[in-house]
Design a protein that fits this description.
The chain has nine helices and ten strands. The chain starts with a helix and ends with a helix. By secondary structure, it is α+β, with helices and mostly antiparallel strands. Helix 2 packs across helix 4. It is globular and about 50 Å long. The protein has a four-stranded antiparallel β-sheet with strand order 3-1-2-9. The chain has three domains: 71 residues, Arc Repressor Mutant, subunit A; 81 residues, Alpha-Beta Plaits, CATH 3.30.70; 72 residues, 2-Layer Sandwich (Alpha-Beta Plaits), CATH 3.30.70.
């Protein structure tokens, strides 16, 4: 999990730096819109509650969030987005999963295939790499909170979490996807603010990369994330912290 969590932390920092870009807010809006199809009340719709929390964590304006909810609920005109996942291989044979939301699957498929080919990878068939990942719930808590690590770990495990790791200035708690919101609610009831709660794909067997391989893989990942339709990119790479810091600084 270390490779995923380190990259996720860096992506989050990059996202905060780019938070004013309309592209980021557009992607967050799509997540909210799709979740709101199943109800516009976040108290009754866990997926919507998580989508709103994620948008707020990137300082998305309340008006944008409300508009996205109304569009998804059918109160305003909206494009009909569908969720798709593409699987493929990147440089050095790393596995890559790409979650998208699109209103034109033919356009998106062509774009994703082109990006894979351009940056030294190849798009695979459904099921070609998904078996290399487990879907988990991830809860992130800033270490600025005064609770001790042992106390937080005990609380999380008692609530039903699987594990907790330390990553830079944050703790990351792992749960089963079905237990994510239950564990999140228990932690919040103890007055502990949560930075982010979401489901993510965690690689079972990370692949270690040297600096040259890492640079090639990250260029592919960056290109995929720049695509308007792409929501999340997951990979099973494992890059040493010093190399990752150097390549993303």
């Amino acid at each position: 999990m270390s490779g995923h969590s380190k990259w996720a932390t860096i992506k989050r920092k990059k996202g905060k730096e780019d938070a004013k870009r309309s592209k980021l807010f557009g992607k967050l809006s799509r997540i909210i819109m799709v979740a709101a199809r199943n109800g516009s009340n976040p108290d009754m719709n866990a997926a919507l509650a998580n989508a709103i929390d994620k948008a707020k964590s990137y300082s998305m304006p309340a008006d944008n969030i409300e508009r996205a909810i109304k569009k998804g609920a059918g109160e305003l005109g909206a494009a009909d987005y569908e969720e798709l996942t593409y699987e493929g291989f990147g440089p050095a044979g790393v596995a890559i999963m790409v979650d998208v939301m699109t209103d034109n699957r033919n356009r998106t498929a062509a774009d994703i295939r082109h990006i894979f080919t351009k940056y030294g990878g190849n798009l695979g068939a459904a099921g070609s790499v998904s078996w290399m990942f487990d879907r988990k719930g991830i809860i992130t808590i800033d270490k600025s909170h005064p609770i001790g690590e042992d106390e937080l770990f005990a609380l999380a495990i008692e609530a039903g979490a699987e594990d907790m790791i330390s990553e830079d200035d944050q703790w990351q708690i792992t749960t089963e996807p079905t237990e994510l919101n239950f564990v999140k609610n228990i932690i919040e009831k103890h007055g502990i603010p949560i930075s982010l709660a979401e489901t993510a794909l965690i690689p079972k067997n990370p692949v270690k990369l040297d600096k040259e391989e890492a640079g090639r893989v990250l260029r592919l990942v960056d290109a995929l994330e720049e695509n308007d339709d792409v929501q999340d990119v997951y990979s099973n790479f494992d890059i040493a912290a010093d190399i990752l810091e150097e390549l993303t600084s």
